[in-house]
Design brief:
This protein is mainly alpha-helical and about 80 residues long. It has 6 helices and no strands. The protein has a single domain, classed as 434 Repressor (Amino-terminal Domain), CATH 1.10.260. Helices cover about 65% and strands about 0% of the residues. The radius of gyration is 12 Å and the shape is globular. One of its GO terms (molecular function) is DNA-binding transcription factor activity.
């Protein structure tokens, strides 16, 4: 799985853990709901600035989102120690 897919799944999981719909995350970040949907399905890459806005809206760090990756994905991307 590509890092974009791993990050996309983590964003979707964290959003769901907050009880938010995509439109709620879109409103909190200032991004459009369609952009959030495309990011969460890995159909669009997320920029560092967007990742920061998403993490801030979810009250987590980018590191936290990466930690949500499956163990085999963390290992593959050199994130073994997260």
């Amino acid at each position: 799985m590509a890092v974009e897919e791993v990050f996309a799944r983590a964003i979707a999981a964290e959003r769901a853990a907050h009880g938010w719909e995509q439109k709620d995350l879109a409103q909190a970040t200032g991004l459009s709901p369609s952009i959030i949907a495309r990011i969460e399905t890995a159909k669009r890459s997320v920029s560092l600035r967007e990742a920061m806005r998403i993490a801030e809206a979810l009250d987590v760090t980018i590191d936290h989102l990466l930690r949500r990756a499956e163990p085999e994905d963390r290992s593959r991307f050199g994130l073994r120690h997260l």
